[in-house]
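Chapter summary example.
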Amino acid sequence: MADEPGKPSGAPGAEGAPADPWGAPAEGQPGARPYGTHYAPGAGYGYGWQAPLPSGQATASMVLGILGLLFLPLILPVIALCLGVSARRKADRGEAGGRSQAVAGIVLGIIGCAFALIGIIIIVISTVASV
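The structure predicted for these 131 residues follows.
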């Protein structure tokens, strides 16, 4: 069924066979690309916007806020509060992710500072009352 001797019927250039051996549609057919048939897979199609990964400051703020409630209530909540404010500002500017972790660190830092302040007030009152 070949039109030319030595060419099989499915070879490029044979009658009824596609011109492109990879099956790309010919010009004028549906699906033809106006700029050629070669393209990088995925080059024109994105997977959407992805949020940036949490920054180390945001994670450290949250962890120190949690530890500040359990250990060293005078030191760790203050550090958690400072790191949380800094990480939240970076997240709001789009420089880093982890805004929710930063907010958690801020809240835990405030709660830890409040507990430390209440503890100091109780110690001062009990010391003054015993004198």
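To summarize the output: The mean pLDDT is 78.
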